[in-house]
């Protein structure tokens, strides 16, 4: 709920417009919370949206290789493997809190 509220408020106030109509500092001040808290809520909400959309993006992406099989040196695992792990962790967290 906090994450959705932060994201909706950000959209309504032009945080995602180019150029931004409001900064994270001003948005946080408007909501009466620290900027770091607001940014954490927004990042978590964005992460959920991206993870939910990832399978659809991958189906329609026109790339020469399968992006889910690409590895990065820092992570040491495939993109698809990391994505599935994140989804599994979020589902486990939901079940734990239910």
Walk me through this protein's architecture:
The protein has helices at residues 2-12, 24-31, 35-60, 79-97. The chain has 98 residues and is mainly alpha-helical. It contains 4 helices and no strands. The chain folds into 2 domains: 1-62, no CATH class; 66-98. The protein starts with a helix and ends with a helix. The chain is globular, with a radius of gyration of 16 Å. The longest helix is centred in the middle third of the chain and has 26 residues, at 35-60.
> In this structure, how is the largest beta sheet organized?
none
What does the radius of gyration come to? Answer: 16 Å
What series of H and E elements makes up the topology? HHHH
> Can you tell me the number of structural domains?
2
Could you tell me the strand content as a percent range?
Answer: under 5%
Low-pLDDT regions: none
Give the N-terminus to C-terminus distance in angstroms.
Answer: 15 Å
Structural class: mainly alpha
Can you lay out the helices and strands and say which pair or pack?
Blueprint: H1 2-12, H2 24-31, H3 35-60, H4 79-97
Helix pairs in contact: 1-3, 2-3
Write a short abstract of this structure.
The protein is mainly α and 98 residues long. It has helices at residues 2-12, 24-31, 35-60, 79-97.
Please give a handful of descriptors for the protein shown.
98 residues, mainly alpha, globular
């Amino acid at each position: 709920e906090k994450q959705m509220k932060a994201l909706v408020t950000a959209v309504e106030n032009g945080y995602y417009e180019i150029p931004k109509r409001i900064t994270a500092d001003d948005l946080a001040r408007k909501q009466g919370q620290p900027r770091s808290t607001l940014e954490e809520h927004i990042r978590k909400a964005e992460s959920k949206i991206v993870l939910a959309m990832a399978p659809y993006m991958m189906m329609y992406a026109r790339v020469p290789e399968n992006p889910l099989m690409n590895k990065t040196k820092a992570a040491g695992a495939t993109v698809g493997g990391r994505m599935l792990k994140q989804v599994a962790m979020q589902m486990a967290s939901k079940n734990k809190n239910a």
